[in-house]
Structure formats: C-alpha cells, structure tokens
Amino acid sequence: MHRSETAHEMVLRQAAVIQGLMSDLERTVQILNVDICTEEERVGVFDRSLPTYSIGARILTARRNNLNVTIAFLAQRLRAITVAPPISVAETA
User: How many domains in the chain?
Assistant: First the structure.
C-alpha cells in the first residue's frame, strides 16, 4: 500500500480490479457458451450423457464451469472487501 493511499482507497482499487476480472471472465464464459453450442451443432449430439457427445464440447464445458466457480469466488471476495470495515494502517503494524 502506498503511504498516501488510504485503506478506503485501497479497497476501492481492489474492488475495481476484481470487477474488471469478473467482467473479462463473464465475457469468456459467453464465448465458451457459443463455442459449446457450435460444437454440439457440428457433431449433431446435444445430450451430454451419450457416449457420442463431443469431447471438445466436454472440454469447453469443463472450462466454462471452472470459470463460473472462479467468478463466484471473486464475487464472494468482492462482497467481503466492500462490506468489511477497512483495516487502518495502525491495526496492521
């Protein structure tokens, strides 16, 4: 933390970074959704329980699901830092 930066400013900066990451990841999830649909249409199999379901679509789905878990974690972190009172510099020393 810069000496001139207050705890509140640090929280605002962290929140902005997290929101930016979440936005980027959400866009990536949207792209993966399109890619999954495209792969399903290409193969002609839409039921994930079938053995003929596309391996590529399975991989993309796993990636999308992992990104959704990351987004949920970032949202939880964002709530935690914006709800919790900021720690003063004196408390950290």
Answer: 1
